[in-house]
Structure formats: C-alpha cells, structure tokens
Specification:
The chain is an alpha/beta fold and 437 residues long. It folds into two domains: 31-288, TIM Barrel (Alpha-Beta Barrel), CATH 3.20.20.10; 293-425, Beta Barrel (Lyase, Ornithine Decarboxylase, Chain A, domain 1). The protein has helices spanning 17-27, 36-49, 69-77, 87-95, 112-120, 131-144, 183-192, 213-232, 258-276, 288-291, 324-327, 419-425; strands at 31-35, 57-62, 81-84, 103-106, 125-128, 149-153, 162-165, 197-202, 206-209, 240-242, 281-286, 295-307, 310-315, 334-337, 346-350, 376-380, 400-404, 410-414. Strands 1, 12, 13, 14, 15, 16, 17 and 18 form an eight-stranded mixed β-sheet that branches. Helix 2 packs across helix 9, helix 5 (112-120) packs across helix 6 and helix 8 (213-232) packs parallel to helix 9 (258-276). It is globular. The termini are far apart.
Length: 437
Amino acid sequence: MANSTRAKKRGQLEIPNKDLYRLAEKLGTPYYIIDERTLKEKLNDLRKAYSKFEGDVIIAYSIKANFNPFLLKVFIENGTWFDVTSPEELYFLKESGGDPSKVVYTSVTEGRGEYSTILKEGVEYVVVSSYQGLLHLIEASMEAKVNPKVMIRVHPEVHVKAEIKSSYGKFGVPFNGPSLDTATNLLRLIYSESSLNFVGFHFHLGSQIEDPKCFEHALEKLEKFVSRMKKEIPHLNVEILDVGGGIPVYYGMEVPSPTDIASKVVTRLNCLRRKLNMNFDLIVESGRYLSAEASFLVSRVINVKIYGRRKFVFLDTGYHQLLDSALVRQVYPVEVVPKGEKDGYKVVLVGRLCDDIDIFPLGPETELNGVEVGKLVVFKNVGAYSLVFNMPFHSQVKPAVVFRRENGEYVLARRRESLKELFLEEGGDLLRNFKKL
C-alpha cells in the first residue's frame, strides 16, 4: 500500500503542552480531552473512502464506543446516523438532539419489552439476529401499531484478520442450518408478517480489520444466499446493506487507511448491486474509527521507583479509566510532557490500582525519556471504549471531560465527580433513609 493512503502513525490530534498543564491545574488529573475537529475529519475520511459506491452511503456512529453528549452533538449536526444497542443509548441520543428515525437499532438480547420501548420512541430500523427475537419484535410492533423496517443480522462465517473478531453464535445467524435461527427462516417469517417491512441485511465482521478480503468473501456468500432465496420469494428486494465497521485505528502499529479497506469493498458492492439487480443503499457503522483518535487521557506522574534497571512510573490513573489496556492489552500511543533526555532505564508505566495487571502495555515506538514526578503522561487515541468503561475501583471518581471546539476554545463536557457524589451514588444516602423492599 502506498504511504499516502496509510493511516498516520500518530493520531492527528495535538494539544499544546501549556494547555495540557493549564487544564490539569484547573480540573485536576486525570482528565479526558475530546477534539471536535478530529471527529469531523474522521467522519469525512469515511465518507470520502466510500464515495465511489453507486448508491447512497450512510455513516452510522456506534454510540457504545463513546456516548458523551458533546461528541454525539457533533455527529448529529453533521448528518450522521446512529447504531444503537439499548434504550439507554437511545435516551442519550434523543436528549442530545438526535432523531430516532436515523437510528439502526441492533439489540443483543432482543427482548419484547426492549422492542416495545424503542418502537414507541420512534425507532424505525431494527436489526434482528434470532428467531425468538423476531417473534418478540412482531409482538411489539403489533402492540405499538407500527411497521418497523427490518434487517437480518447474518454471520457470514468467513476468516477475518482482525484484533477482535465478531463472536460466532452470540451475534447474527448463519445463512442456513438445522435450527430455526437461520437467515432463511427469519426471511420467510418476515415476509409472512404484514406488520414488518424487510429492507436488507447487516453483518459486522470485527474490529481493527487489516485485510478487506473478509468483506469480499462475506459479500460473495450473501450474493449466493439472496439469489437462492429470490427463487422462493420472487418479490424479495434488498434496499439496504449494512456492512458494520472494522476500519482500524492506530494503536502503536501501522494500519491500513479507510481508503485501503473501502476501495476493494466498494468495487465488490457495486458488482453485487448489478448482479442482483437491486439498487440498495449502504450503511457503514463505526464507533472506534470515528471517536478513538479524537481523544486524549491526561494523567500525572505521582511517584518513581528504581528497581534494578527498570524505572517504575506511578500514575494517578489506571485501567479503570482505560479498561482495554487490561482486557485486550491495548497499546495506546503514550507521551511524556515535556520530553526529556534518556537516562538508561527501561520505563514500566503502572497505574494507581492495587492489582498486578494494572500495568500499561507500551509499544516499541513509545519514548518516555525524562519522565519524572510532576510531569504529565498523555495517552492518545483513547476516545473509544474508555469513558464508557470507567469504574470506581478504590472509590475513584469519574474524571472531567474537556471538549475542544473547532475554533480552539476549551469547554467543560463533563464535571469531575466529587467523592460525596460517588458515596451517595453507591448507596450512602440509604444509610439513613432505608427503603424497605
């Protein structure tokens, strides 16, 4: 791949050192920064990458990656749709000014009560991935007296070269099989029900996909399935194809750009439209790519300990605020601010938690020269799956979130939680006001 299309080795977001220290003094550390300009740049990257698709392209932001209202507002104002997986996420979207009619709702559990809630809230597009879940949707749609537009989530069962692969069984259904939970049976049931409108298919192959061939293989399988089912259901038509996400983010290793991935996928999609004679539109979902590189976590060095030839650097954060560092050993780009001279020691970056796994993995390119007590250590590209995983381990409060507007202005996007607020939240108010159950 040409270097011009490769993703940048470091996130595009840069914050002046003086601003990092000024915010640290004002808000305390750790704190997060979300950058508006980077969010818009990533959205434009995806739109440009899929611009040669012959139908309409809809970019849907996956709220599960980061549901900060300031971030959601940026995407709402820039015409983004949303991938939503729970009524609670839908609440955040609506309260931020979002439109439920621009939601693709993909439940994990597919409960009847959940479907009743989201249909009454105005959601129109629903993805189903089980036979029982489809029955629940039928019941909910009849109760709400609406006709949802339904997509079937398939699991194409293709080889995927990715950091995190979509789980077999939990997500989606196979095209065929011995049980009721197949795309064949779901499609037959949808077309037999007047309360539902079939509009297309959805699949998600994984996160941090490095090779677009998996998309090509998935589309080949889908083409064969649709061609076969059209013989049984002559009026079968695909209006929408949702290919999920997977565009990789830089976490210390060079990765393909959106154009690298999308170019081959778009060629295959255009071919599929012509072969099936179906002018479907395309939905591309993204949580990680749209949000990750738009955010920093800024922490402070509290202590340093020399143990042999290693320098243990203790921060005032931990994996409770960057949980992927522990769950999947995520390697974030890390910098010390300001940089200093080498001292011959190997730096071991550790968090404040009383847990052996609270040690941050560092990539081969990471340089923490001159790290010492009082300096700031910045974790880059943390905008996806960090704020949403915050935990009160050791009674630690939620950090502040700063939003940097496109004009360079900094505004508070989430207050730093007080210890009193955490105490009350965890049941402290019930010590004196018992609630009988």
